[in-house]
Write a structure and sequence with these properties.
The structure is a single chain. A five-stranded mixed beta sheet has the order 1-2-8-5-3. The chain is globular. It has 382 residues and is an alpha+beta fold. The protein starts with 10 loop residues before the first helix and ends with a strand. Strand 6 and strand 7 form a beta hairpin. Helix 7 packs across helix 8 and helix 8 packs across helix 11. The mean pLDDT is 94. The protein has 16 helices and twelve strands.
């Protein structure tokens, strides 16, 4: 392992709220080995921003990693030309133009339908009743898996990311992940001869990618395209309802839904970290890494780095978030960022607040997760 100073965590407390431990790491040992995770964590924004680009040292290729074992070797677990060829194949489904012209009208139609069904109820859990189906409907369209139910899309995504964060090796968690990937493969097989135009399935088939890559990349899109938008939609709403003056500033046109989204993903990063394997021994600062070391780039910590963000633990939509890196900073920058932004800032948030102007919280919103983080429930009424 690296010769980084050691920091211990309480895994239960870290899952409940990783930010106090990450703040201590930034102060005392910004590059630190955590035995409970068997990984060296980089916690400063500038270290992550710089080192993530050095794929010759910090490689994404992890043939023995959890994601590869459970989901197949997708493009996020490849570097260089292999990564870029698959990224280019997928790009036609996720480009900003495709999102704006093709997917966004579908996003809006689904969100309006969900809101209209919610209106008469007067209350709901924002996570399960709005953010989940809105995100799932968008993801069903983008992937091309039209036969999948929205609840199934949410479930398989959650079970896959739980599996990919299962560093403790829990058997039932792994079993649920395998069941999820098997269900996805079943839906892929059903759509092979009728993949919808511009979908992730169609563009990869058109590009002639091998089927194992097609399957792995569809699973990647699902693992990143369901839970993160779901958690961000519910989380931004929760944050704004807890900061009514900031919500009022958006309604008055002084700030935008994009400002709220950008600040939220800096403050509570839905994607908390990205794993790497050291490909060749190298030194960063005073820390020497050895080939085979496991490294976690802690995006969640980067978003609260005091060197770049004053009062970093506070939610403030007036903040300049241009230095935040919630989607990554290197060649593996999130391919679905344009779709996520459009879904959340152009559709889910404005439609909800316009349709339910007296929306308010009715209880606590517990959060969980450190590799992936979001609210477990957000009870609201109107």
């Amino acid at each position: 392992m690296s010769n980084a100073p050691v920091s211990h965590i309480d895994p239960v407390a870290f899952n409940s709220d990783p930010y106090p431990a990450l703040a201590q790491m930034r102060r005392e040992a910004p590059i630190t080995f955590v035995p409970e995770l068997n990984a060296t964590l980089l916690t400063h924004r500038d270290d992550i921003h710089r080192e993530e680009k050095r794929i010759e040292v910090f490689s994404s290729r992890q043939p023995d990693g959890l994601m590869t074992q459970l989901m197949g070797e997708n493009m996020m677990r490849k570097d260089g030309a292999a990564h870029m060829s698959e990224r280019r194949a997928l790009f036609p489904a996720l480009s900003p133009r495709t999102v704006a012209e093709h997917w966004q009208p579908m996003f809006e139609a689904a969100a309006r339908e969900i809101i209209e069904k919610l209106k008469p109820k007067g209350q709901c859990d924002l996570v399960t009743d709005y953010a989940m189906p809105v995100s799932a409907a968008a993801l069903i369209a983008i992937t091309g898996l039209e036969g999948m139910e929205r609840a199934d899309m949410d479930r398989v995504s959650q079970h896959m990311i739980d599996g990919c964060a299962n560093y403790a090796g829990d058997g039932p968690t792994e079993a649920r992940c395998h069941a999820a990937t098997a269900l996805i493969d079943t839906h892929i097989d059903r759509m092979l001869d009728c993949a919808p135009a511009k979908s992730a399935l169609a563009v990869q088939l058109d590009a002639g990618l091998p089927m194992d890559s097609v399957r792995a990349n569809i699973k990647l899109v699902i693992s990143g395209g369901q839970n993160e938008p779901r958690d961000a939609i519910a989380g931004v709403v929760w944050a704004l309802l807890n900061h009514p003056a900031q919500l009022a500033a958006i309604r008055a046109g002084r700030y935008s839904w994009q400002d709220a989204f950008g600040e939220y993903v800096r403050w509570i990063s839905p994607i908390g970290m990205s794993p790497r394997i050291v490909a060749t021994s190298d030194t960063v600062g005073d820390v020497t890494f050895k080939a085979g070391d496991r490294v976690f780039f802690m995006f969640s910590s980067a978003g609260r780095d005091e060197a770049h963000f004053e009062a970093a633990d506070q939610f403030d939509i007036s903040r300049d978030t241009s230095r935040a890196i919630p989607f990554g900073a290197g060649p593996h920058f999130c391919a679905g960022a344009a779709a996520s932004r459009a879904l959340i800032t152009q559709v889910a948030l404005p439609l909800l607040f316009n349709a339910l102007p007296d929306l308010h919280l009715t209880g606590d919103a517990p959060f969980a997760g450190w590799a992936f983080r979001g609210p477990l429930s957000v009870p609201v009424a109107w």
